[in-house]
Amino acid sequence: MDKQLVGVKFQRLQLKALKETEGNPQIMSDDEFNGLVESIKQKGWLLDPAVAWLRPDGEYQIISGHHRVRAAIEAGLVEADVKVVEGLTDEQARLLVLEANQRRGRFDMASFDSFIDRIIGDFDIDIETVIDEIGLKNTVDGNKIFDNDEDEVYERKPFRRCPKCGFKLTK
């Protein structure tokens, strides 16, 4: 891709005016999508704005955020702030769709476990509250977390903290 001057700005847009990129290869399970819808209903669209390309014909084509846009519409949002990119070719826009999809990453389950443990310990909340807050319903069964990307089950090791010093005690 040749480097060229590309303009980027935030713009409030009608969500239904955003066109999806045909053939976008990113997938999301129904449970993940429903969790995203619930999160947006409860908190609004706080994280990761959509990125759209202002095409030469004046239409806005989604580069990143296809599921977020659909979930926001389903949650009842009419408009949102979108990062708008200008000055791309069709080839550059399609390559950016692929780049955005492949950069999503996934959880390292041991780090995920440790991070959740710190939240539970630091804020004295339970695992169900954490799961509800981040929209992971139906991916957790007791202390088992299902890694949707690999159909694996990760067993969380429950713990409690010493009430005097906060030292982590495993059960």
Structure notes:
- The chain has 171 residues and is of the alpha+beta class.
- The chain folds into two domains: 7-102, Conserved hypothetical protein from pyrococcus furiosus pfu- 392566-001, ParB domain, CATH 3.90.1530; 109-170, no CATH class.
- It is 35% helix and 25% strand.
- It has five helices and ten strands; from the N terminus they run ββαββαβαααβββββ.
- It has helices spanning 30-43, 66-74, 90-102, 109-123, 127-134; strands spanning 7-14, 18-19, 51-54, 60-64, 79-86, 140-141, 144-147, 152-155, 159-161, 168-170.
- The strands form three sheets. A five-stranded mixed beta sheet has the order 1-5-3-4-2. It has a three-stranded antiparallel beta sheet with strand order 6-7-8, with no helix packed on it.
- A hairpin with a 4-residue loop joins strand 7 (144-147) and strand 8 (152-155).
- Helix 1 (30-43) packs across helix 2.
- The chain is elongated, with a radius of gyration of 20 Å.
- The relative contact order is 0.16.
- The mean pLDDT is 78.
Number of domains: 2
> Order of helices and strands, N to C?
EEHEEHEHHHEEEEE
E-strand count:
10
Q: What fraction of residues sit in β-strands?
A: 25-35%
Q: What distance lies between the first and last C-alpha atoms, to the nearest angstrom?
A: 54 Å
The CATH topology name of the largest domain reads: Conserved hypothetical protein from pyrococcus furiosus pfu- 392566-001, ParB domain
Low-pLDDT parts are: none
**What is the CATH class of the largest domain?**
Alpha Beta
The CATH architecture classification of the largest domain is: Alpha-Beta Complex
Mean pLDDT: 78
**Helix amount, in percent?**
25-40%
Query: For the report, how would you describe the main beta sheet?
Result: 5 strands, mixed
Radius of gyration computed on alpha carbons: 20 Å
Continuous helix count? 5
Task: State the CATH superfamily name of the largest domain.
Answer: Conserved hypothetical protein from pyrococcus furiosus pfu- 392566-001, ParB domain
Judging from the principal axes of the Cα atoms, what is the shape? elongated
Strand order of the largest sheet: 1-5-3-4-2
